[in-house]
Amino acid sequence: MTTQAGGLTKTAPVTGVKARQSLGSRLASGVSGGIVRVFLLLVGLFWLVPTIGLLLSSLRTPEDMSASGWWKVFSEPSQLTVDSYQKLLENSDITGSLGNTVLITVPATVLVVVIGALAGYAFAWMEFPGRDWWFLAVVGLLVVPVQVALIPIAELFGKIGIFGTIFGVILFHVGFGLPFAVFLLRNFFAEIPRELLEAARLDGAGELRLFLRVVMPLGGPAIASLGIFQFLWVWNDMLVALVFSNSGSQPITVALQTQVRQFGNNIDVLAPGAFISMVIPLAVFFAFQRQFVSGVMAGAVK
C-alpha cells in the first residue's frame, strides 16, 4: 500500500493478516494440485482392495485358496478359472435365492418410490384436514427401530397367513421405507416455486396431471436418490429376511449365511455368490450415479 505525503511516496508494510491469507492461498493452491489427486486415487484403490480380493478369490480353485492368498494370481495367472461360477449356477439354493432377492428388492423399491412421491406431493401442496399433524406422525415413525417391530409384525403376518412369504418381506420393507421416503420427497417438493404450479393450474391441469407433468420431472434427482437408497437397503438386508422368510423365499444374503453355517468349506460357492451379491448393487449405484449426485447437491443447495 502506497501513500503520498509532502511529495514523498511511502510504502506501508504488508500486514500479518494479509501475509497469512497469502500463505493460506498458496496452501490451497498446493492442496488442489496433483499430489492430493494421487493421494485420493490411492485411497480409492485401497477402498477397492476387498472387492478386488473377493473377485480374484472367486476365480480360483479351493485348493489354491487354501494354499495361498488371492494376490498369488499376479505371479501365477494360470490359477484363474471360472469353475466356481459354473458350480454356483448348479447350486439351486444360491440361484433361487438370487431370484428371490430380485423379486423382493424391485417391488419394495418401486412401491416405496411411487407411494412416497404421491404422499410427499400431497403433504407439500394439497390441503386436507390435519395435514401437518399427519406429517408429524410420519416423521415420528422415523425413530422407530426395526428391531422393536420384528416380533409384533411377525405375529401379525402369521395370523393373516403371509409370514415366510416373499410378499411379507416386501410389505415389511415398504412399511419401514415409506416414512423416510415421504419425509425426503415432501421437503424436496415443497421447494418447487408456487408460481409454477399455479400457472399449470390456470392452464387447466388437474392434480394428477400436475404431479406427473411438473412435479415428477423436477423431482427426478431426489426420486433417483431415494430409489438408490431403498434398493441398497433392501438388497443388502439380512435381519428382516432372516426373520420373515423361509427356505423357499430367502434372499441371497440369508442363503449365503446358511451355506456358511451348513458347509463351512464350500468356499468355491460362497466366494462367487458373495461377489455377485455385492457387484449388482454397485452396478446400480454407478448406473445412477449422476442422478444421485444431482439429488444430493440439490438438497444441499436448498
Description of the structure:
- A hairpin with a 2-residue loop joins strand 1 (2-5) and strand 2.
- Helix 6 (92-125) packs antiparallel against helix 14 (252-262) and helix 12 (220-236) crosses helix 16.
- The chain is built from 16 helices and two strands.
- By secondary structure, the chain is mainly alpha-helical.
- The model is unreliable at 14-20 (pLDDT under 50).
- The chain has a two-stranded antiparallel sheet.
- It has helices at residues 16-31, 34-47, 49-58, 62-67, 83-90, 92-125, 131-140, 146-160, 166-189, 194-202, 207-218, 220-236, 239-244, 252-262, 267-287, 289-301, and strands spanning 2-5, 8-11.
Topology, please?
Blueprint: E1 2-5, E2 8-11, H1 16-31, H2 34-47, H3 49-58, H4 62-67, H5 83-90, H6 92-125, H7 131-140, H8 146-160, H9 166-189, H10 194-202, H11 207-218, H12 220-236, H13 239-244, H14 252-262, H15 267-287, H16 289-301
Antiparallel strand pairs: 1-2
Helix pairs in contact: 3-15, 5-15, 6-9, 6-12, 6-14, 7-9, 9-12, 12-15, 12-16, 14-15
* Cα shape: globular
**Uncertain spans, ≥5 residues at pLDDT below 50?**
14-20
* Individual helix count: 16
The side-by-side strand order for the widest beta sheet comes to 1-2
Overall average pLDDT:
81
Helix coverage percent: over 70%
The secondary-structure element order is EEHHHHHHHHHHHHHHHH
Beta-strand segment tally: 2
Main sheet characteristics: 2 strands, antiparallel
State Rg.
Answer: 28 Å
Query: Structural class, please?
Result: mainly alpha
Strand content: under 5%
Distance between the termini: 41 Å
